[in-house]
Amino acid sequence: MRHPLAFLCLCALQAYPACAQLVSDQPVIEVKPTPEDVNISTTFDFHNKGTQPVRVVSIESACSCLSATLDKMLYQPGEKGTGKATFKLSGLTGMQEKVLHVHTDDATRPEWVIRFAIDVPELIHIEPKTQQWQQGDAASAKTTRVFLLGPTPMKITSITTASDQVEFSWREIAPGREYEISLKPTSTGDILFGALKIETDSKIPKYARQLAFFAVCRKPGKQ
């Protein structure tokens, strides 16, 4: 005769199969670089909250700016682990969201997503970053503003361009804090893309040179 309690336990095991699951100790891992940082690394903790071992198969990132490693590849039930993520900050400013995709042999959850929030200080803000005209429109002057946001005032020392198809001038609006660039293409007859190279007296290399772009674009719908 089958014992009722044993029968209930068997049903429970069939309804709730053994599982494995890697989970981060933080839902979002916050990273706070300094203005001087070119690269930054951070560690993060996680654990296997399931009842079966989990083997890590691969780690992927959609951004070339992010790479990561884990302290091992196999985690037993309840076991804790540590990971290390490294970010290349070149070209990144402001709040950035990045993710890692960890692929495992866990049939119930084959992909584990690790989320990061990176707050990269923005010491120079260019608005707009790209100044645009449409092909055939009037070649009128437009204004680009450069805001210097760091704790220490900065000065723009020079602005140059390799293009002979744009005219520009610049002036200081607020000493060490804001500049204004007036620019216009010599013609909007042809498609154009170029850049202004802005040099400052910042002691931080990545802020010593900045780029502001300009373009003459094809009108929507025009072939």
Description of the structure:
It is a single chain. With 223 residues, the protein is mostly beta strands. It has two domains: 20-120, Immunoglobulins (Immunoglobulin-like); 124-217, Sandwich (Immunoglobulin-like). Helix content is 7%, strand content 52%. The chain has helices spanning 4-15, 205-208, and strands at residues 22-24, 29-31, 39-48, 54-61, 66-70, 74-75, 80-88, 94-104, 111-120, 124-127, 130-134, 142-148, 156-160, 166-174, 178-185, 192-200, 209-217. The strands form four sheets. It has a five-stranded mixed beta sheet, with no helix packed on it. Strand 8 (94-104) and strand 9 form a beta hairpin. The protein is elongated, with a radius of gyration of 27 Å. The chain starts with a helix and ends in a 6-residue tail after the last strand.
